[in-house]
């Protein structure tokens, strides 16, 4: 076949091109340690993470690319149990966003995996439930979007549609 002779020609040409190449010296050089934070979600380029969202009535759910449905199902059941509560109920949107960002940062640094974010149902807000509606965008915003694996509305005993469970990725150590 003519393809085999082309392959042989390519190999010979490559060998001639690299025959004088020498490996780089690695003495005294150590590879850089990997970053402590996970990289941004694929395609985000440092921008907001891309969650697969499902909004039905009062329920909100989202999962990062690569997070399987079983992880979301366990979170729906309250597994793992939340290690921190973040109460945004009654705050204006800007204050709620700042509080959420600070608490997510603190939880991440403490190595916590699951958080309960209390945002309320918006029953006393004019129009819609502002905090609940903005929460997915806040969770997706850098740097937290790369740290959030999944989120879902809490079970009724934990606040139902007025609270959201957030699962953070495991930290690489």
Give an account of the 3D structure.
This protein has helices at residues 2-18, 69-76, 93-109, 130-140; strands spanning 52-56, 59-63, 84-87, 114-118, 148-153, 163-168. It has a 6-stranded mixed β-sheet with strand order 1-2-5-6-4-3, with helices on both faces. The protein is an alpha+beta fold. Mean pLDDT is 81; it is low at 34-45. Helix 3 (93-109) packs across helix 4 (130-140). It is elongated and about 75 Å long. The protein has a domain at 52-168: Ribosomal Protein S8, Chain: A, domain 1. Strand 1 and strand 2 form a beta hairpin. The protein has 4 helices and 6 strands; from the N terminus they run αββαβαβαββ.
Give a quick summary of the entry.
The chain is of the alpha+beta class and 173 residues long. The chain is 31% helix and 18% strand.
Q: According to CATH, what is the class of the domain at 52-168? A: Alpha Beta
Order of helices and strands: HEEHEHEHEE
Task: Give the second-level CATH assignment, the architecture of the domain at 52-168.
Answer: 2-Layer Sandwich
Average pLDDT over all residues: 81
Question: Kindly, what is the distance between the CA atoms of the first and last residues, rounded to a whole number of angstroms?
Answer: 53 Å
Placed side by side, the strands forming the largest sheet appear as 1-2-5-6-4-3
Outline the low-pLDDT stretches: 34-45
- What integer value in Å does the Rg equal? 24 Å
Shape descriptor reads: elongated
User: How would you characterize the largest beta sheet?
Assistant: 6 strands, mixed
Strand content: 15-25%
- Counting DSSP E segments of at least 2 residues, the number of strands comes to 6
What share of the residues lie within helices? Answer: 25-40%
């Amino acid at each position: 076949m003519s393809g085999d002779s082309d392959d042989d020609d390519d190999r010979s040409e490559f060998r001639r091109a690299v025959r004088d190449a020498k490996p780089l010296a690695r003495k005294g050089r150590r590879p850089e340690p990997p970053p402590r934070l996970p990289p941004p979600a694929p395609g985000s380029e440092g921008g907001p993470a891309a969650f697969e969202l499902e909004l039905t009535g009062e329920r909100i759910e989202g999962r990062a690319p690569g997070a399987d449905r079983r992880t979301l199902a366990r979170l729906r059941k309250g597994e793992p149990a939340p290690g921190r509560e973040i109460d945004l109920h009654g705050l204006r949107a800007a204050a709620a966003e700042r509080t959420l960002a600070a608490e997510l940062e603190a939880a991440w640094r403490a190595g916590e995996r699951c958080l309960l974010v209390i945002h309320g149902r918006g029953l006393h807000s004019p129009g819609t439930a502002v905090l609940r509606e903005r929460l997915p965008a806040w969770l997706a915003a850098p740097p937290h979007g790369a740290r959030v694996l999944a989120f879902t509305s809490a079970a009724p005993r934990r606040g139902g549609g007025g609270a959201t469970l957030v699962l953070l990725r495991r930290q690489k150590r």
